[in-house]
Design a protein that fits this description.
The strands form 4 sheets. Strands 1, 2, 3, 7, 8, 9, 11, 15 and 18 form a 9-stranded antiparallel sheet that branches. Strands 6-10-16-13-14 form a 5-stranded antiparallel sheet, with no helix packed on it. It is built from 4 helices and 18 strands. The longest helix is centred in the middle third of the chain and has 19 residues. The chain is globular. By secondary structure, it is an alpha+beta fold.
């Protein structure tokens, strides 16, 4: 399925592969930070409350799941080319995220002047039966009138192991979890044109 500017319907991982990633990464998570003006990472619980860890490709801890991370990157690149006519030049380190009860991430975009990004992706690792609420929602898929009716945006339901790919400038959020735990992988890509700005 492709809702304007969000592509879904591609399963990247089996339930067993999802569980392998969750079991390896869950014990390593720390409080999630956001990048504020000036490219500094800070904790802002009024905007984001969750836990996560960057999965650096050169960290030996993540060696067992490197083939899975490569699958995730390949899916982001293939869908970006096929659905958005965008060819990423590179991908930032994949991030494992974990949302528990009352955790959320308010509306935000994934690109900035300091760290420009072209395409973003989220892969749901948990079964949708493992948590309540916590929808991934997009604000700019509706008309202005519809946005007034749906202030949380349009929810994009994902199955376990399924990826959602979208432009990094698209406003999105993760609604508060009310029960259970939601695990996901998050990816961001950039184009060759963005490389120079990222070096400054």
């Amino acid at each position: 399925m492709t809702i304007p500017t969000v592509a879904t319907g591609v399963k990247v991982f089996t339930p067993e592969e999802c569980q392998q990633i969750i079991e390896l990464c869950s014990p390593l998570v720390k409080t999630s930070l956001i990048i504020d003006n000036g490219n500094k990472q800070t904790e802002k619980k009024d905007i984001r409350q969750s836990k996560g860890i960057g999965l650096a490709s050169d960290n030996p801890k993540f060696e067992p799941i490197k083939p899975l991370l490569s699958k995730a990157v390949d899916a982001l690149i293939a869908i970006s080319r096929a659905n958005f006519h965008c060819t990423p030049m590179g991908v930032d380190p994949v991030e494992f995220t974990s949302y528990g009860p009352n955790d959320y991430y308010q509306f935000h975009i994934d690109s900035s002047i300091e760290v420009p990004r072209s395409m973003s992706a989220s892969i749901l690792l948990s079964s949708p039966l493992d948590f309540k609420n916590g929808d991934l929602c997009f604000r700019d898929l509706e008309s202005i009138d519809e946005q007034k009716k749906n202030p949380n945006g349009v929810p994009i339901p994902l199955q376990q192991g399924e990826i959602a790919v979208f432009p990094s400038l698209l406003m999105h959020q993760v609604l508060p979890i009310t029960e259970g735990r939601r695990h996901s992988l998050v990816l961001w890509s950039f184009t060759e044109e963005m490389l120079e700005a990222r070096k400054q």
